Structures are given as structure tokens and as C-alpha cells.
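User: Predict the complex with flavin-adenine dinucleotide.
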Amino acid sequence: MTDLSCDVAVVGAGTAGLAAERTARRHGAKTLLVDAHFAGTTCATVGCMPSKLLIAAGEAAHAVRRAGLFGIEVPAPVVDGAAVMQRVQRERDLFVAGAKRSIAEIPDGIRIEARARFASPTTLLLDDGRRIAARAIVIATGSVNTVPEAFAAVRERVLTNASIFDLATLPRSVGIIGAGPLGLELAQALARLGVETHVFEQGDTLAGLHDPEVARCLHAILERELPITLGVEVTATPDGDGVRLAWKGKKQGERRFERVLVAAGRPPALEHLDLGRSGLALDEHGTPDFDRATLQCGRSSIFLAGDANHDRAVLHEAATEGMIAGRNAASFPEVAPGTRAVPMAIVFTDPAVAVVGRLPGKDEPHVLGAASYEDQGRAKVFARNAGLAHLYADRATGRLLGASMAGPGIEHSAHLIAWAIQNERTATEVLDHPFYHPTYEEGLKPALRAICKEVHAPQRDDEGFTAGS
Ligand SMILES: Cc1cc2nc3c(=O)[nH]c(=O)nc-3n(C[C@H](O)[C@H](O)[C@H](O)COP(=O)(O)OP(=O)(O)OC[C@H]3O[C@@H](n4cnc5c(N)ncnc54)[C@H](O)[C@@H]3O)c2cc1C
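Assistant: Here is the predicted structure with flavin-adenine dinucleotide placed in the model:
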């Protein structure tokens, strides 16, 4: 086999890597794209899409159970676990086929199916023995599942996001380790599908929320459907063909589950890249320092994009980072900052959660506007009146800085707030925009008005507005 050379070598054909390769090529670079499998992106195969498909099934069962609230009497839903999983897999496979189609559209000679690691700052060594000499390299290797040592003894009963969507049917019971976005989304979906589900979290918050009041509110709402135990360490031992979990810390207990789902974080997939040979300065976790605006690692010709940099591990950011890294890799040593959007993370629980912009620092002069969904018109109509939105704004100007929200329709309201923050809008200016009645978006008004009052900014909407007017 002969060695290869190119202007830009991209390692990893996920969302970030595909965007990086495409962009570098559009900018005139001779590119090579290396992936171990070309199996489709994480999003399509084991991430965003199959998890939303499971959530959709859970929502359908939940809607049937709630029908009585509206005077519609139906028997309790009978969940056919095998049929649920078949739909998840069928639809997932269509998304995967779409991802593979875009990979197939890449011109011949560019795709290299191999595992890559560094041999030098400008050379990759492939596991088929070949080498790639590249003027610039984009690392887009994504993130990996971790199963903590505490679960080693029950490894064959452990599920992760890489295996759960391939189950032939639903398990009877699942202990879920981790109350982050991934753990909570799957936990609620499974619980709604009739799986006995219990979430355990060693930290004292959930869903990535750093605002304790919003976190407490979400915890209370979700616990109406399933137990979520925070502040506990869990140990696991085999119990027949299941697993016995024992937990201690803020609470104590033990219980047998059929399976354990470990959703305890996804560190960047950098371990097998031999970064020691890349010439990059690495931190104590073995992660290279990189610039968020250019994606460049130090002053090197190496760029780090997507989950691999562990900065904003969500899909739209992986795509943006891939584009910026690809463009800069093509133009290296000329490197320019790319446009970064306001940070926005959404958790597709019910109610949904969103964290947008930034939480102001402790000493930063700011105001907090709060809005509860308990008495919100639209939410009451649909019997979904629970949740809390906190908006943070600059104390001097009322300009919005960030938001932590858990409530009905939050995935949509979060976009409005993100766009307002990105456009440097004040609470007054946001209130000047139309809010249709009765919508979930109206639920933000009390928080915006509270900010206007605190900063003595004009509030030109009608405060007399009530939930049912
Ligand atoms: C269950 C779950 C649900 C999610 N839900 C959402 C959601 O609703 N919304 C959202 O925005 N985000 C969601 N995410 C996050 C989102 O999926 C990721 O942020 C995104 O897919 C990351 O893309 P990437 O290109 O960085 O990595 P990936 O798509 O993982 O691509 C990395 C690629 O690198 C390859 N690779 C790794 N090492 C090597 C090597 N040494 N040599 C060659 N190839 C290598 C791998 O084979 C892989 O193809 C979810 C994630 C999970 C796990």
C-alpha cells in the first residue's frame, strides 16, 4: 500500500468531520477523510434521532394515559415492546441511510476506511499501515461512552446509548446511572413505555442545569413519573440474570433491575490518537488547548471540532465547528475566527429543558426575571401547567444574557431567547415583539416584565394581561 498526501486530512466522518471535509474541499483543498467505519453519524445511529424516536413512542403512551383528563375514557395503553423497538430501528435506519448517502456523495479517493493516529504533527498513521502526510489535520473523532469501573462486574447487563436502541424488546426494569440530558430523556421515555425506571445521579443537579431553583422545579415535576435520586454513589452486583444496585449518600437503598443503562458522560474520543506525537500541549486530561473561535490548537496546523473538543457537545455546534475548522485548515497558516452562535442546549424531556447564553457571574451586576408556568394560559388549556423560566439580564441595560428554563413548549421559546441574546436585545425590545395568544411563548412575558421593572426600563406591553384573557 502506498502512502498518501493531502492539504487537509480529517479524522472522523461524523457531523463535524463531514462538514470539515466538505468545507475544506470547497475552499480548494485536496482532502482526505478517514473514518474507522463510515457507519453514519453518531446523531443518526446512536444519538439524537433514535433517542427522539423512543421519546416519541413514550409520548404516545403518555397521551393515552392522560386522555381521561379531558373527558376521554380509553383503556390503559398496551405497550408492545417489540413493536416499539421495531419502529425505532426502522426509522433510525432511514436516518442512517441518509447519512450514508451524503458520505457516498464524497468524490472517490477521498474516503479512507481506517483508524488513524498521529505519527508526527503533520503525519497520520493508519491501522492498515499507510501514512498520510497532511499540511493541516482536523480532529473530529467525536466522543465515547464510558462505563465506570463500579459496573465492571455486571458489564453484560449494562446498556449504553450504543446498545439500547438495538434491543429486540423493552426490558421490564432499568436502573439508569446519570441524570444528564441523555439519561433523563431515555429514562422518561422508558418509564412512559411501562418500564420500571429509577435514575441515580452522584451530583446534586440534573439535565445540565446550573440554576438550582429551576433544577429543583424540574426534579419535582419529573418525579411525578419516575424516581430520580440525586447525590448518591451506586454499586452494582450480579443478581440472577439481572443486576442489584445499591446506593448510598443523600439517600440509601437497593433494588434489583433487569438492566442498567449507563449514561454517565461522554468524554472526547482522543485516547487512541497518540496525541503525544502531535506536538500539541495537552492538559491533565490529555486534551489539547484550542481556540473556540478558530478551532486551532495553539499555533499548530491541527484543528479540533465537534464532541472531540468537549466544549459544546451538541449537533448544530459540531456542524458549525466542522465548517470553521475545515475552512481554516484549508487556508492554514491564514486562520480567521468563525461566527459562533449563542450557546443553546435543549433536553427533550417533558417538560423540556433549555439552557441558553450564560449564567451571569456571582459578582456581575444582573437581574433575574422569573416566570412560572403554573398559571400560564396555554399550559392550563393542555393541562401542562408546570415549570419555571429564569431569564438573566444585565442590571444596567436590561440586555438579556442567558436563560435556564424547564416548561411546556420550551424548545421553541428557547430559540426566541437565544436569537434575542444573539441580537443583543433588551427585555423591553423583546416585549415589543408580537406574542400571540394563547401560546407557550407568552409564558416568558412575566420574566421579561420583571426585568424591565428591576432595571427601570420601559415596558410597553399591557401588564393587565391574565392567563385566560
Ligand atoms: C443519545 C444521544 C442523544 C443526543 N441527542 C442530541 C440532541 O437531541 N440534539 C443535539 O444537538 N445533540 C444530541 N446529541 C449529541 C450529538 O449527537 C453530538 O454532539 C454529535 O453527533 C457529535 O458529532 P461529531 O461529529 O463530533 O462526532 P461523531 O458523529 O461521533 O463522529 C465521530 C467519528 O469519528 C470516528 N473516529 C473516532 N476515532 C477515530 C480514529 N482514530 N480514526 C478514524 N475515525 C475515528 C468515529 O468512527 C465516528 O464516525 C446526542 C448524543 C447522544 C449520544
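The first helix runs from residue 15 to 26.
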